[in-house]
Target: ATP-binding cassette domain-containing protein
Amino acid sequence: MIEVKGLTKRYGEVTAVNGLTFTVRPGLVTGFLGPNGAGKSTTLRMILGLNRPTSGSATIGGRPFVRHRAGLRHAGALLDAGDVHGGRSAAAHLWALARGNGLPRRRVGEVLREVGLEGVARRRVGGFSLGMRQRLGIAAALLGDPPVLLFDEPVNGLDPEGVRWVRGLFRRLAAEGRTVLVSSHLMSEMEHTADRLVVIGRGELIADESVADFAARGTGASVTVRTPDPAELAAVLVEAGARVRHDRASAGAGVLTVTGLSADRVGELAFERRIPLYELAPRAASLEQAFMELTAAHADHRTSALKAGGQAGWRDDGSSAASRSGARKEGV
Ligand SMILES: Nc1ncnc2c1ncn2[C@@H]1O[C@H](COP(=O)(O)OP(=O)(O)OP(=O)(O)O)[C@@H](O)[C@H]1O
Model:
């Protein structure tokens, strides 16, 4: 379990994280989402004791991470896949970590097999692709067989097969009862991977709930209804204030997409007018749409980034080099 309470981090004038409070539970994959600069990496670094909070606390299993001896047995993390000594082999890199944490040598071979790098164990990490480095970072996180795992943008650089593999790995780790926290800017990725979402914007908590509850908050929610009398039903629904789109005919019936009325109300109106229904299904807004709506107020930097000729919206290069190297310079 990870517990974050009133966590705040200021860098001079910049408040990177502002009074964050949330709990990450075992047995679930929790997605940690937010626009660029929302404070995800800073939060993960504070949870791992790499950045010192200005105020508030973060604990893993009830204690600050730095108070755990042989830390890799308690929590494993992939923060920055590029942050590896390029002159070492994959096996040597992992063996150095294992030795420092009192872990047996056999774990090196086990985790290399787990991530599919056993064939390149003796190769220098300097020649690895970004995807291979991500796999190596995941191997390092798994080395101590820890109950708590944190991954910062783990799918960057992975090919489609790698993405599928990593999704399956996270689901398995959660099914084993571990606490799994995964940061991402890819909404679609979280839709397939996470059970819960912690969403932040400008360092503040926006949502902490199940994926389904989060998606249901978007205004793009609609109702799909199939009926042999689509024209008549459409007229009734429009009269009641709905917007109706006639999509297609299917198995002798018309399919309507209705927005602005709940599925319950659509069913009631059809019943009152004695219009038969073959199908009535509420559809939540897409996660992406709900996310864009809910974070809009916390992400006005998108516009300024565009004006400045910088990158707007979601990060797609897997790095925020300035902030990360800056955070490293803090020397904690
Ligand atoms: N060492 C630092 N010195 C000054 N400001 C920093 C430092 N580290 C981070 N920041 C600032 O804190 C804010 C949060 O940055 P952080 O990297 O945690 O966000 P993020 O959600 O991980 O973003 P991204 O997805 O772009 O990596 C940003 O405004 C960033 O510029």
Notes: The first helix runs from residue 40 to 47. The longest strand covers residues 14-24. The chain has two domains: 2-216+310-329, 222-283.
